[in-house]
Amino acid sequence: MGANGNDPLEIFEEELEELISSCRHPAEKRIRYGNLRSEISGGDGNGHVNAAIVYETPGGSTTQINITYDEDEGVFSYLSDDLDETVTSDDPHEVIEMVRRHAASIPKKRLNALYSTIDIWLSEGKSRREMFSEMNKLLQNEFLGGQITSDELKAGIQHIVKQFSGGS
Question: What is the pTM of this model?
Fold first, then answer.
């Protein structure tokens, strides 16, 4: 049982929902965090509950964080930040803190993905006009997490202009 009498899994689920909700409103924030969402499955007597936390970068590339909870042992497991090892913890707050750190890095990851996409367009020989057209498509993408925010649009345009003016 957790400190407030709740099961660690229950604490994790409640805090995860609060974290994800904080990244949903207003709509611009929801896009900036790549339409961050989660799904929890299992817990049907097999002893394991799986949580998937998912978000997208501009254009629609999906990233997923997986967390497993062993109901018999009362232990969460997930990959370390560098993806080199499996971390285990019986503290749901520690697991939520890992998700919070990852969520806080999403806007920067999205911007870096946008810059990489622009650099690919440049290497393909796209003109400024074609790149601006592609940026407009990202702004209006029907796939919510694949859209870009107005701030990302501005940063992307600045990156295009910088690349065309010979900057690096």
Answer: 0.88
